Automatic annotation (TrEMBL), chain A:
Pfam families: DUF5987 (PF19449). It comes from Amycolatopsis umgeniensis. InterPro entries: DUF5987. This is Uncharacterized protein. It comes from the Bacteria.
Automatic annotation (TrEMBL), chain B:
Pfam families: GMC_oxred_C (PF05199), GMC_oxred_N (PF00732). The keyword Lipid metabolism applies. Residues 68-272 form the Glucose-methanol-choline oxidoreductase N-terminal domain. Belongs to the GMC oxidoreductase family. Residues 451-506 form the Glucose-methanol-choline oxidoreductase C-terminal domain. PANTHER family: CHOLESTEROL OXIDASE (PTHR47470), FAD-DEPENDENT OXIDOREDUCTASE 2 FAD BINDING DOMAIN-CONTAINING PROTEIN (PTHR47470:SF1). This is Cholesterol oxidase.
Amino acid sequence: MDSDEQVKVSTLEAYADTIVPGEKRFPDDHAIAGASAGPGAVVAGALELLHTEATGVTVGLPYLAQSLNDHAKVYAKEHDLTLDETLPSFVALSFVDRTALVRQLTAPGHPEKDGWVSLALFCNMSFDSAAHKHTAEAIAEGHPGLLAMGYTAPDEDGLWRFPKFSYRRELAQLHPDTTPSGSPA
Amino acid sequence: MNAYDKTDVVIVGSGFGGSIPAYHLAAGGAKVTVLERGPWLETKEFEHDYLLGSSYTRAFDFVVGDGMSVLGGNCVGGGSVVYFAAMPRAPKFVFERHGSIGRRMWPSALTRDTLEPWYDRVSDSLPVSTQDWNDVSYAGGLWAALCDHSGRTANPAPVAVDNDRCVNCNFMMAGCRFDAKRSLLTNYLPAALAHGAKIRPLHEVQRIERIDDGDYRVHFNIVDDEDYRVQSGSGTIDAKVVIIAAGAGATPVILQRSESALGTMPHAVGRYFSGNGERLNTAIINEERVREVLGLSREDGKVYEANHIGKGPTVANWDKLDGSLPEYERYSLEQLYFPPGLGTILAQVPGGDEPRWFGPQKKEILKQWASWLTIFLMTEDDNEGVFGAPPPTGNAYRISQQMLGRGPLKYDPTPNTLHGWSLADAECKEILEKDGLAKVAPWTNDVVGAYTVHPLASCRIGDDPETSALHPNHELRNHPGIFVTDSASVPGALTVNPAMTIAALAERSVPGIVRALQARGVDVTYGAPAPDGSITGRRAVSKLSLVAGS
Ligand SMILES: Cc1cc2nc3c(=O)[nH]c(=O)nc-3n(C[C@H](O)[C@H](O)[C@H](O)COP(=O)(O)OP(=O)(O)OC[C@H]3O[C@@H](n4cnc5c(N)ncnc54)[C@H](O)[C@@H]3O)c2cc1C
């Protein structure tokens, strides 16, 4: 088994990859399950964001990783699965099983729900808003999440402006009871 | 001792409920100090950036509760700095609602007609303007066309936006860099400062205590300007009158924490919370069908692909704001823009397999993000939210440096609320999925509970002491000299965006507060014009000022 740090990193990578999955970085990439084409949360910087102290989850990461592996062991037992012992238990689960376990942990009523939801929230944010980087810089560097979502570069001063923004046509009838202030009656 | 340790009025919070009385009381001659827990950001600090620590997180407070999460402002100007500036007045039937208490929940003195002159004052002051079809964004236009195609009406929403300055960047939630949004930083607050009001940012009020001869002592902590988890130092300030306007998610918590010093709070403090019946739906637009069926296309030849272009909500459907319908079956459907990070995670894959909020299918819909159309449902809920024991400070245990916290609010939607949500969801689906124009799904409530940006009613006005915390003049029952003038005072869901009504109620509360100050020997008068000096709205209310608060 790898060092504690490697275990932690690949376990959290596997969690991030369950939230926003991606393709393997190299052939025997175990953390990334390869459930989706193109980069996912891991390549988008999930670990970097989780290690940004401002999130408030950073100090809890070793505990979360260990707990995730404990949950994975219990899950494997319940489902009669044999896990590859050279891998952290959560990493050793298939993508389908990782997904099923994350669903359980984040479901209403799970006693640890808050922690797992926060972790999911930041994993998702690494992809959809690159919250560990200035947005304009992330786009310039080709951040995979922002590009996948169709973000375009800002003006030279780093601000977005859209001079064309409207179909400029009357597209519906107004409600007949609209008052002069433009409000409902 | 410094000069501000004693004043006439302390105001807690600088959103609509705080800034409006701050201006009028200062203009009338009272010494006013506003304590605001958030930072004081200038226009140049409003960034187009999702980086943690930019204005996108500095100006916000997101509190996860049990069954309900509340997103609000956290800066000087409060929710007005981060809001979308849609400013409709509430429909007439709202004021006649019975809700969960089986009798009219609004004070008998309040109807849409009696509130109208106060709405006019706000409209003058911000100012609020009507929009035409040239002002509506692609997203609003598309929503209008979809409504029309399914035999419905659609209205450009009245807004507090200066359309000549607006660049349609859709970053207005992080504060408006172009001063196009008429937040309180552009009207009531500068006018209050000009009349001598003091604003102290990064001062988080914890509790209030009563001191000699009926005055109050307000206890605050000083909050670090970057890491809001860090509080360095504390202090107090004494006042003859205290106005609590910390927002419906925070106001009742301050009162709960003050109970040991002030004595028993009215039963309704921290109860009857409403999320304004909110719900969001995300539609994934079929661009080709929109071109074929609705005949829409942009000037650059694209059809829609413009989720990120615009200025928040611009068009709403009001067909179900029909007073003849039963309660819980009335709602509005408004086009909205919600940036990533704070909301994208809750969008579900329409018709997909579980899980619908994460995983490979969710990633696929993220790739169609530019073609998303978000619809904001405002329904009638049942005021079922209740606040548990207050956290040690503020209104939440702070998790992140900024923004994210865990709070004591519990919200378990009743069948009435669920009924309203499901009718509105079904209506949305009918409009959006007609002829294959889109696929739609509501946001999940399983992750952070229901989600509201419009918290209301946690400390509401009313005639009935059992179900309202405040007299109809906004004074806290059994605690003379404490007033609540913010969203907490609004009795229930409004079926439209609430800021216009919150602001009108705050305007209406001022004459009564002036009288309370006069009774305590403060030399103060009522009657200031709108912050820009205009007096159209004043004419109507000067006759009414004696009625309000009596
Ligand atoms: C993203 C978003 C978009 C919105 N869009 C719209 C819209 O388009 N139209 C609309 O009508 N409404 C909108 N709203 C809602 C609107 O902003 C609120 O209804 C309104 O701001 C509530 O006013 P308030 O005075 O009650 O509280 P707030 O404006 O929230 O002000 C309360 C202030 O008190 C401060 N505070 C809290 N606790 C303490 C404490 N202990 N000590 C000192 N200060 C404290 C807070 O930091 C805050 O500045 C939106 C809200 C959000 C978050």
